[in-house]
Amino acid sequence: MTKQSVMVSEAANAALTKPGLNIATLSVAVSNSSLFPYTPPSYATPQAFTTPSSAYPPPQMPPAASIITISRRKPLQKLDTTSRINGWIDSMKASSPTHIKSSPSLDPSSWTVHHPSALSMFEQMMNASKEKQIVMFLDYDGTLSPIVDDPDRAYMSDSMRSAVRAVARYFPTAIVSGRCRDKVYRFVRLAELYYAGSHGMDIKGPARRPRSQRNWALDKTGKNKAVLFQPASEFLPMIDVVYKALVETTKGIPGAKVENNKFCLSVHFRCVDEKRWSTLAEEVRTVLREYPKLRLTQGRKVLEIRPTIKWDKGKALEFLLESLGFANCEDVFPVYIGDDRTDEDAFKVLRDRGQGFGILVSKIPKDTNATYSLQEPSEVMDFLHRLVDWKRSSLKAQERV
C-alpha cells in the first residue's frame, strides 16, 4: 500500500485568494509520506492547541508532486425570490421535531429494518472490519452532546469524554463539526484527536503523538507540529462582515442567535417563535443577497451560511483518510456517526466508496445515506464502549496466539 499525504501549496493559496475569480481551483499536492502518520495518541494537555492558526502556514509543495484539484462552485444567483423564502420556511419547519412527529413521512418499522441499530448489529459490523484499520469520525452536537437551546452550553459529559479518549487510544479519531474548530476543542478537550471544524473547512491534526503503541511518552522535541488545512481562507473577511450584519439585523427577533464558526455562520432559531421564522428568513435573505459567493443550507433548527466552494463533511472525511495514508486503500474501515443533514455528505461518501458504515443518530425516521442508526448520545457512548471492549479482546486473543 502506498501511503500518501495532502498538503496545500502556496501557489494554490494564492490562486484561491486572487480577487475577482468566479471559478477557481485549489491544488493539493500529494507526496509519498503521510501528513498525519497515525500512532496511538498520548494524552496531551489542552495547551497543545493554544497556538494560533497563523503559526501553521501551508507547507511548501514537494517536488514532482501529483495534483488533486478541488473545484469551486459558481456563485449562486441573488437570493431575491419569494419561492426561495418559502423554501427556507418549509425547510425550517421540516427541521422542527414537532412537525416531524405530527406527520411522519416514513414508516418507523420499515425504517428500522433498513437502518437497524448499530448496537444490535455490532457483531456484524466488527466482522466486516476484520483485518482492516477502523477510523472513527464523530459529529459533535447531537452525537457527543445533547441538543440544547443555548449552543454555547452544549457540553459533553465526562463519561462521554472518557469513552472518546478510550476509542482514540486504539483508532484514529476525528471530530467533524459545523462549529468553529477552536470552540469544539474547548468542548472536547482531547488533544489526541483530529478536529475538522466549519464543516471540514478548518482541519488540524493532533499536536502531539507518542513514539510507539506501548510507550505514551512524547518524542524528543516534546511535541509534534500540527498541520492546518483551510481551503476557504479567502472568505474570512467576508464571513466577518456578514456575521456583524446578521447580528445587527436579527437583534430584534427574540431567541435568534448568530454564531461565528470562523469559515461559516450559523443562525440558530431553536428559541425563536415559529410565527417569527418568516421574518428571520427575510432578514437573512436581505443580508445574503449582497453576497452571492455564500450559500445557505439547513441544519437542525439552524440556518448554515457557507462559502460556495465544493467542500463539506464528506470532502473532509476523504481528506483525512488520504492524509492518514488510506487513499485508494482497501484495508481501511471508516465509521462516521452523526445526527444532522450536513452529515449526509459523509454518509454518502462511505456508501459510494463501499467502505465502512455511516450511523445516523435520530429517534425519528429520516431519509438518510447512513447504514445503521442510534437514537441518542447515550447510545453513541454505549457503541464506543463496545468498540473499545471489542478491540481489547482482539488484542488479548492475539497475545495468546
Care to describe what's here?
The chain has 401 residues and is an alpha/beta fold. The strands form 4 sheets. It has an 8-stranded mixed sheet with strand order 10-7-6-5-4-15-16-17, sandwiched between helices. The chain has a 4-stranded antiparallel sheet with strand order 11-12-14-13, covered by helices on one side. Residues 1-37, 39-81, 97-103 and 210-225 have low confidence and may be disordered. Helix 2 (82-94) packs across helix 9, helix 6 packs parallel to helix 12 and helix 10 (313-323) packs across helix 11 (344-353). The protein has helices spanning 10-17, 82-94, 97-102, 108-114, 122-128, 158-170, 181-188, 236-250, 277-288, 313-323, 344-353, 377-400, and strands at residues 5-8, 25-31, 66-71, 133-138, 173-176, 194-197, 202-204, 210-212, 215-218, 228-229, 257-260, 265-268, 294-299, 302-307, 332-338, 357-361, 372-374. The radius of gyration is 21 Å and the shape is globular.
